[in-house]
Design brief:
The protein is built from five helices and no strands. It is mostly helical. The protein has a single domain, classed as Orthogonal Bundle (DNA polymerase, domain 1), CATH 1.10.150.20.
Length: about 90
Amino acid sequence: MGTVIHGLSIDRAVNIGPVLSARLRSVGIESLEQLKRQGALEVWQLIAEQTPPEECVHTLLALEGAIRATRWTAIDQAERDRLVAAAGLDG
């Protein structure tokens, strides 16, 4: 398990598996509190800059779900659509 800087270690958050946890750490996100402060979209953009072909809608939604402490599939469709559009992933 990773080091906790402030609050819950990022690898203990909902929707965050080993691969996404490593990507979050690579952009300086160690805790759920850090993710909450920066926001899903901003953190997703940082990750996407490092691994552009691998980043997708599911990663963005997983980050938002982690912030809300819920599975990303439970996020209201209108909210998902808003995030996807804000990221420029809506086609």
